[in-house]
Write a structure and sequence with these properties.
This is P-type Ca(2+) transporter. The protein is mainly α. The protein folds into two domains: about 120 residues, HAD superfamily/HAD-like (Rossmann fold), CATH 3.40.50; about 220 residues, Calcium-transporting ATPase, transmembrane domain (Up-down Bundle), CATH 1.20.1110.10. The protein is about 60% helix and about 5% strand. It contains 15 helices and five strands. The strands form two sheets. It has a three-stranded parallel β-sheet with strand order 3-4-5. Strands 1-2 form a two-stranded parallel ribbon. The longest helix has about 40 residues. The chain is elongated. The relative contact order is 0.08.
C-alpha cells in the first residue's frame, strides 16, 4: 500500500486490511516512508523493495520508483489509482486500474482497466474469471495433446509395422470434431471456483504446459497407446473377431477413451473428477450428445465410417477399457511433480 498519509494512519489502515500483521514492527522493513525509500542507494533499494508492505508519506515519484523496482525484479505489477498524480505509475505498471467515477480523466487514459463502479471488490471478480479462463485453456490443451499423441503413435506404429492404419480419415475427422468442438465447449464452460484464488499467481515466464499437465497427459496417452496397439496386433485372436470388427473395436475404444478422459481433464489436480459436476449441466449434455453420436457412427453409418456393428459384449469391452482411465487418472494424481519446468533441465547453462 502506497499512500500520502502519515505512518500511523497508514499502519492502522494496512493492519485493518490485512496487509500488515498486528504485531509486525516498523523496524522489520515492512513499513517505510517515501523520503527514506527515495534516498536509498539503488542496490539497497532493490534488496529491500520486496520486503516493503506499506509506504507512507510518499510522492508520485516514489510510487513510480516502487513500480520500476518491482518490475526489474521480474514481478508482474498492478497499480490502482484515481488521481492525476497516479498517472505515471499507472502507465509504468503492467496493469493499471483506475476508478470510473472518482478517477480523473488523466488516470483513466493512463490505465488499462477502468473499474466503473469504483468497487475494489470487482477486481477480485475479474481475477477469478481471468484465472478460470486460463485454467480452462490449460485443460483443453492437456485434453487435445492426449488425443493427438495417442492417435499419432497408434497410426504411425501400425503403418510402419503392417502398412495399414487402424483409424481411417473419416474416423480421425470425427475424433477431431470431438476434440476441437465438443471437447473444447465442454471444458471451456467450467465456472470459477474458490480454489483458483488460493493458487499462486502464474509467473511472467511460466510455461503454459506445466509439469502437472505433462504428467496427466503422458499417463493417459501411454495407456491408450498400450490398449489400442494390443487390439491392433492381438485383438482378432484375443476376441475371435474379424479384422473389420477389430478395427471398429479400436475406433470405438479410442473415442470412448477421450469421452472418459474429459472427466479427468476437468481438474488437473483434484483426484475426485466428479466434484462439482452437477453444476455444469452443459458438460453433461455434451457428454451425452457425444455418446449418442458415437453409437450412430458405429451402428448406423457403417459405410460412411467404415465400421461394423458391435454386440453388447463388444460394447462392454470398449467401455471397460475406456473406464480404466478414471482409476489411472486417480493414481497418477498421487504422484508429486517438481515445480521447475521439465524442459528447463535441457537448457544449456
Amino acid at each position: 500500500m502506497i499512500t500520502g498519509d502519515n505512518v500511523f494512519t497508514a499502519k492502522a489502515i494496512a493492519t485493518e486490511c490485512g496487509i500488515l500483521h498486528p504485531n509486525q514492527e516498523v523496524d522489520e522493513g515492512a513499513v517505510i516512508e517515501g523520503e527514506e525509500f527515495r534516498n536509498l542507494t539503488d542496490e539497497v533499494r532493490m534488496e529491500r523493495v520486496e520486503k516493503i508492505c506499506v509506504m507512507a508519506r510518499s510522492s508520485p515519484f516514489d510510487k513510480l520508483l516502487m513500480v520500476q523496482c518491482l518490475r526489474k525484479k521480474g514481478h508482474v505489477v498492478a497499480v490502482t489509482g484515481d488521481g492525476t498524480n497516479d498517472a505515471p505509475a499507472l502507465k509504468e505498471a503492467d496493469i493499471g486500474l483506475s476508478m470510473g467515477i472518482q478517477g480523473t480523466e488523466v488516470a483513466k487514459e493512463s490505465s488499462d482497466i477502468v473499474i466503473l463502479d469504483d468497487n475494489f471488490a470487482s477486481v477480485a471478480t475479474v481475477l477469478k474469471w481471468g484465472r478460470c479462463v486460463y485454467n480452462n485453456i490449460q485443460k483443453f490443451i492437456q485434453f487435445q495433446l492426449t488425443v493427438n499423441v495417442a492417435a499419432l503413435v497408434i497410426n504411425f506404429v501400425a503403418a510402419v509395422s503392417s502398412g495399414e492404419v487402424p483409424l481411417t480419415a473419416v474416423q480421425l475427422l470425427w475424433v477431431n470434431l470431438i476434440m476441437d468442438t465438443l471437447g473444447a465447449l465442454a471444458l471451456a464452460t467450467e465456472k470459477p471456483t474458490e480454489e483458483l484464488m488460493k493458487k499462486k499467481p502464474v509467473g511472467r515466464t511460466a510455461p503454459l504446459i506445466t509439469n502437472i499437465m505433462w504428467r496427466n497427459l503422458m499417463a493417459q496417452a501411454l495407456y491408450q497407446i498400450a490398449v489400442l496397439l494390443t487390439l491392433q496386433f492381438r485383438g482378432e485372436s484375443i476376441f475371435g473377431v474379424s479384422k473389420r470388427v477389430n478395427d471398429t473395436l479400436i475406433f470405438n475404444t479410442f473415442v470412448l477413451c477421450q469421452v472418459f478422459n474429459e472427466f479427468n481433464a476437468r481438474n488437473m489436480e483434484e483426484k475426485n473428477v466428479f466434484k462439482g459436476i452437477y453444476k455444469n449441466k452443459l458438460f453433461m449434455a455434451i457428454i451425452g450428445i457425444t455418446l449418442v453420436l458415437q453409437v450412430v457412427m458405429v451402428e448406423f453409418l457403417k459405410k460412411f465410417a467404415n465400421t461394423e456393428r458391435l454386440n453388447w459384449g463388444q460394447w462392454g469391452i470398449c467401455i471397460g477399457f475406456a473406464a480404466a482411465s478414471w482409476p489411472i487418472g486417480w493414481l497418477v494424481k498421487c504422484i508429486n511433480v517438481p515445480e521447475r519446468p521439465i524442459f528447463s533441465y535441457l537448457r544449456l547453462k
